[in-house]
Amino acid sequence: MEQQEDVTGAALAAGGASDGRTGGAGRSTLDAVVAVREAVSAAVPGSARVAVRAPGTDDPQEVDVEVDVAEVAGPAPTPVPPSAPTPAPTTPAPSSVPTPGLSPDPGLLRLAEWFAQADAGTADDLWAASFGLYPARHFGAPAEPGPVGPGPVGPGLPGSAPAEPASDVSWWHGPTAHTPVQQRTREARPVRGLRRARRDAGALPVVLSGAEPGRPGKHRKPERSRTATVGAQDRSAAATAAERRIAARLLLAHPLVTASGPHADGFPLIRRHRDWLTERFDTLLGYRLLVGPWHARLHKAGLGPGAARRLEHPATGAPFTPGGYARLALALALLVDAPEQLPLGRLRAAMRTVGPEAAPAPDAARADLCMALAVLADWQVLLDVPVDPADPAGDETVLTVDRELARAVPAAPPARAADAADLIRHAAEAEPGTAVRRRLAETPVVLIADLSEERRDWLRDHRISGPAALADFLGLEAEHRAEGVALLDPAEELTDLALPGAGTLAQAALLLVERLVEEVRPLPGESTDADVPVPDALIDGVLGDIADEYGLPAGWRRDYLADRTALRRDSLDLLHRMGLIVRAPRGTRPPGWLLRAPAARYAPAHLLPEPGTGRHSRRDPEITIPAPAAPKAEQHA
């Protein structure tokens, strides 16, 4: 199958197919054939010698061709009688000019209609289910060894090297990964690239003869012993394992990798280990991996409703709206069979013709089109996209279309789905083990309370082996707690969101969740099974205090300091996407947010506040906490 893909890709490139690239031997050959046909069109039947200039050269070359005028020039035109006037050529009106090669795909047109009719949350879930191009998301820093606070203590805690982690330690009272804000400033890190296996110079012994102690002879070559051979084999196996892990992490973070894109350095590793990667992704996660000559595509499954995954503008980070998703699906519906060279004006006209009947406002439609084409350019489906593709002045701009990539982008066409909700539900269906492993590999944390009964039973039965298989496959670390499991990435690379982070939003969100945990976390002896409601007034007060205390000294963005509503909205959104808070169920009065147990892993070390401190602090009457001893000078006061 791999050889067949290679041959097919080579044939496509040699024939000038839509691989998203211009030039090359294939295009030159095609242009030369056109030149020969034009040159022999005026020749006589028989053998002829024709001068042909190859593309990119100035010197014509003579070639011998067999000329058949009937075959080259087609049938002779019907003679016109002398008395009949010669009809003048007519130019069709622009509106009647046919649009060759722009027959839309019915499934993607249907998907565009669903996007246009959906709300924001449903549109995000529909994008994750139908495209599956979302990156993985994981916590970074592991918790410090040893329990903190009044939680249960026993074997299985991190740092004690037990046979297996204890499942009775709660995140509310367990070890934390807290780091003070003033210590979160990081030095400039190099551009993330491939991690290469380091060579061990001491693994290859040399024979010392007539040389100074500790140094080999000047003219002696290293002699490989059996130990050296075994060491070389071990290093080779380690290097192979490292390459496979790098390739797997790259695909999980970027499900579409091209040979000329921003992650081109990792594409050779994917090609080299594609058989092994295909088998592992299919066995562990049920994902289909397709590797061609120019791109690799990992077809991820959906994560179900409320997955908190969305598509964003590649440059500005602005989230897609339902209209933007609709324009994206509409453009792809036209590009899967479009010609390789397509004028922008023709694409825009075709999108207006076959688009949903309920058209958005002009300003919204312009923004949606710009976002859709920007993402297609980022995926390399389109090349030569202008800065403002919605500007009518750029209608004559010729876009280069990569039909192969356009066809690889959709992951789950809505062929068998009745509506958007049906597609979202079907895309996330899998047997219990595969479904749990998908959530472990893609989401920051998997809570037992969020799983169905079958998946909950599977996770309990495979509490160690299930996460361990993925941790070994992707180079992650498992963190087991009473509420669930999280796979951590200490390298902080396998995630699209950074928490802790260096930006204004990341720092504000982390400080907010730290103080919320201090205020409302369950006290020892209280139940830790359910999420804890957080009053809106508490969020507003804490966030206001944080902004006053850290805003100007930490150099936070002034637009957030001036607009506290935006700071509140975006901070809560970041915590929600990281799985630390969730919205209260519908019908809850008053509506608000719920704090989840994994949020406590980012709380400070002194988790238990003193009684009476904090606006919403509570005190368990069964627990007596001694007050700190007062200085001698103040005891008589």
Output the strand order for the largest sheet: 3-5-4
Largest sheet report? 3 strands, antiparallel
Q: Cα-atom Rg, whole angstroms? A: 32 Å
Low-confidence stretches are: 1-100, 147-165, 183-211, 607-637
Percent in helix: 25-40%
What would you note in describing this structure?
Residues 1-100, 147-165, 183-211 and 607-637 have low confidence and may be disordered. Helix 14 crosses helix 15. The protein is built from 21 helices and 14 strands. It has a 3-stranded antiparallel sheet with strand order 3-5-4. A hairpin with a 2-residue loop joins strand 10 and strand 11 (484-488). It is mainly α and 637 residues long. The chain has helices at residues 2-14, 24-40, 69-72, 106-117, 120-130, 226-253, 267-272, 274-285, 322-335, 344-354, 362-378, 403-408, 420-427, 432-442, 453-461, 465-474, 504-520, 536-550, 558-562, 564-577, 632-635, and strands at 46-52, 61-67, 256-258, 288-291, 295-299, 341-343, 382-383, 398-401, 446-447, 477-481, 484-488, 532-534, 581-583, 593-595. 38% of the residues lie in helices and 9% in strands.
Task: Give a short overview.
With 637 residues, the chain is mostly helical. It has helices at 2-14, 24-40, 69-72, 106-117, 120-130, 226-253, 267-272, 274-285, 322-335, 344-354, 362-378, 403-408, 420-427, 432-442, 453-461, 465-474, 504-520, 536-550, 558-562, 564-577, 632-635; strands at 46-52, 61-67, 256-258, 288-291, 295-299, 341-343, 382-383, 398-401, 446-447, 477-481, 484-488, 532-534, 581-583, 593-595. The longest helix is centred in the middle third of the chain and has 28 residues, at 226-253.
